[in-house]
Structures are given as structure tokens and as C-alpha cells.
Amino acid sequence: MQTTEAAVSTAHGAAVVVDGGAASGHKLSVKQCRSGGQESQIGTVSQLLAGGIAGAVSKTCTAPLARLTILFQVQGMHSDAATLRKASLWHEGSRIVREEGFRAFWKGNLVTIAHRLPYSSISFYAFERYKNMLQLILGVENKSNLSADFCIRLIGGGLAGVTAASVTYPLDLVRTRLAAQRNAMYYRGIWHSLHTIRREEGALGLYKGLGITLLGVGPNLAISFSVYETARSYWHSHRPHDSTVLVSLTCGSISGIAASTVVFPFDLVRRRMQLEGAGGRARVYNTGIFGTLRHITKTEGLRGLYRGILPEYYKVVPSVGIVFMTYEKLKQLLSYIPES
């Protein structure tokens, strides 16, 4: 999920927030590259800048797959069974090009990019604050206890993800509504969308689906973190001399796929709840998160909870790879710039 754009990965003091996939987000723990035993150090502002730009580049490159995911996720809201059976990546991609033009693959991408920097900044800042607070509460010195430090990072990352997702959620909702539009353009950009939703649905309308978003943060983070660390440890124990880039890319992709598979139903429900009442349309789900899950399962079957998972899988590897490579390259460039 974008949530889950909620995975905050830390390694040797560096933090990168990667979202994207099911659960506002796949997570990649980015290790600082070592050269001759020395670590390239950059300041906090540079880390935020590098992480934000890396996320924006990754989102832009994988935007067509992201939009296809959203379109498939919300198809069941107002479509009959016959229409759903005809759905395919090729059919939907061809329709977009034919009816909306090639540029329509990037609908909603501007607000996605606008979301990245504040989300990354809040995640980074909140993670450091939560980590320090937990260390004080538990009386744990940094790196003095590996198991305690692991738990502190896991809990701190989850809390930071919840904080960042809550603060920046209206932008996530606007992104979904812009990307879900087909030919009729009810919402005409970020500010028009925010104003229209606030006027027609009230201030709380900007937070539709926040509950299911936060509900998915914990599982997404736990799965991403544990799968990544387990895969990386296993790889290093069997092939300790392999490239750090190869290990991080492969293990990050595996953790992203695992997290996406488990939390995708949460992401699908989130998207549909975000579109409740959009453009003056009638509400479809009126029974809360679990009632919505039951409704989808009853009307579309268990497969309905995974509608759109294929393009989500397709974007995991390029998303992780682009973020990792962009972040590392920017980090090298920014390491030469002194930070006051």
C-alpha cells in the first residue's frame, strides 16, 4: 500500500522512505556503501533531499503501472460482473491510450511527487524522535543491545509511518481520485480537488480510508523489515562477497512482493473508501472497514480482494531498483557539499 507509505528504513543513520506498492509502500533498507572500510556521510538535509528525489524519480518511472493498479482496484465499485471478466492489463492499457492519450498514464503523478518530500521529511524526523524517546523509556543505549535496538527501530519506524501517513493523507486521497478519473474530469488538479472535497464532503472527507491505511502500517512494516533482514542475512551467510547493490535490490524486491501479497486487500479497501462519494456518486459501502471487506468478498469473491495485484507485482523490482540507485548516486554527489 502506499501506506502505506509507511515503511521507514534505517541503516547506519540513513533513512529512505519508499512507497509504492500495496501498503502505501515498499520498504528498502539502504545500506551506506563502504569503500575501504569508510562510510560516505551526508547531513540530514541532504539525506532528506536524496530520499525525496529518489522516491519522486521512482514514482514517475512506475506511474503507468501504479495507475493501472488503482484503476483495477476500483473497478468493482460501479462495474458489473461481465465488465470485470473482460478486464486485462492489455485491454485497460489500450483503452487509456485510445480514449485519454498516452500522457494519461501519469494522471495523479504530480500530487504523488508533491506528497514525497513532506512524507519523507516527516517520516525521517518522527523516526529519530520516536527512537530517542523509546531509548529513554526503555533505558537502552544505542547499539548496546541488538535485539532491543531492532525492536526500537521497528516500533519507531511504525510510529513514524503512522505519523507521516496521517499528516499527508489528504494528498494521498487526492492522488487516488485524480488517477481513478477516466474521461470525465470532475477534479482538475490538486488545489481544485482539495477545495471540492472540502466543500462537498466536509473536512473529514479528506480523511476517508485513513483507518484502513493505518491498520495496514504495522503488518506492512513488519513483513517488509523481517523478510528483508532474513533474506539479506541468509544471502550474506552463503555468498558474503556478492555486490551490496545486488543483495539490496534482490532482497528489497522479495520483501516488497511479500508485503504486497499480504496487505494488498487493505490497500484495495483503502482505495475504494477514498472514492466513496467522489464526484457526487452514490456511496457503495456503508458498513466500515470489515463490512467493506465482506461486501467485496461476497460480490466479487476472494479474487476481488486482489484485483490489480499483477501491475503491483510488476512495479516492485523497478521501483526498488530505481530508488536504491538514485539514492546512492545522489548521496555520492551530495557528500561533496558541506552542510552548515
Could you explain how this protein is built, in words?
With 340 residues, this protein is mainly alpha-helical. The protein has a single domain (8-334), classed as Mitochondrial carrier domain (Mitochondrial carrier fold, Alpha/alpha barrel). The protein has eleven helices and four strands; from the N terminus they run E-E-E-E-H-H-H-H-H-H-H-H-H-H-H. It has a two-stranded antiparallel sheet with strand order 1-2. The chain has a two-stranded antiparallel sheet with strand order 3-4. Helix 2 packs antiparallel against helix 11 and helix 8 runs antiparallel to helix 9 (244-274). The chain crosses the membrane at residues 205-225, 245-266.
Search tags:
disordered N terminus; mainly alpha; 66% helix; single chain; Mitochondrial carrier fold; 4% strand; two-stranded antiparallel ribbon; transmembrane helix; 340 residues; repeat; two-stranded antiparallel sheet
In short:
The protein has 340 residues and is mainly alpha-helical. It has 11 helices and 4 strands, in the order ββββααααααααααα.
Secondary structure layout plus pairing:
Blueprint: E1 8-11, E2 14-17, E3 34-35, E4 38-39, H1 44-61, H2 63-73, H3 81-86, H4 89-100, H5 109-138, H6 146-180, H7 190-201, H8 210-238, H9 244-274, H10 288-300, H11 309-334
Antiparallel strand pairs: 1-2, 3-4
Helix pairs in contact: 1-5, 1-11, 2-11, 5-6, 6-8, 8-9, 9-11
